[in-house]
Design the sequence.
C-alpha cells in the first residue's frame, strides 16, 4: 500500500534529511541554481575575509556576490556565488554543491565549522 507516510519515508531514505528539510521558496531554494549573473552586488555587512581559528580554511566573500575559499595551501579550492538574507548565507558552488550558514556577530557558522571575521 502506497500511503503518503510511506512515500515520505521512502523520499527521506532516498534523498536524505537535508534535501527534505531545505526551504522550498525564496533565496533558499537552491535546486538548479548553480549559475548567477556576472555580478550581483551584495548589500550586507559581511563582505570580507572569514577564517577558521587555525586559519586553515579562509573564505572571502566578495562584494559582487562571489566567494573564494582556500584550504591549507590550496588557493581557490572552492568558488561560487552566495546570497545573504538577514543573518543567513546561501552558497552555490561552481561545481553544483550547495550549502548554507548563519552569521552571529563576527562569527560565521557554516558546514560544521566556525569562521571568524579577519581583522
Sequence:
Amino acid at each position: 500500500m502506497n500511503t503518503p507516510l510511506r512515500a515520505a519515508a521512502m523520499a527521506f531514505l532516498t534523498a536524505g534529511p537535508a534535501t527534505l528539510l531545505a526551504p522550498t521558496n525564496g533565496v533558499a531554494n537552491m535546486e538548479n541554481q548553480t549559475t548567477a549573473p556576472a555580478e550581483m552586488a551584495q548589500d550586507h555587512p559581511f563582505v570580507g575575509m572569514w577564517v577558521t581559528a587555525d586559519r586553515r580554511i579562509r573564505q572571502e566573500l566578495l562584494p559582487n556576490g562571489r566567494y573564494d575559499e582556500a584550504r591549507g595551501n590550496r588557493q581557490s579550492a572552492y568558488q561560487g556565488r552566495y546570497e545573504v538574507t538577514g543573518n543567513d548565507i546561501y552558497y552555490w558552488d561552481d561545481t553544483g554543491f550547495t550549502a548554507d550558514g548563519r552569521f552571529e556577530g563576527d562569527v560565521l557558522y557554516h558546514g560544521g565549522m566556525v569562521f571568524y571575521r579577519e581583522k
About this structure: The first strand starts at residue 48 and ends at 52. Confidence is low (pLDDT under 50) at residues 2-38. The CA atoms of residues 27 and 61 lie 17 Å apart.
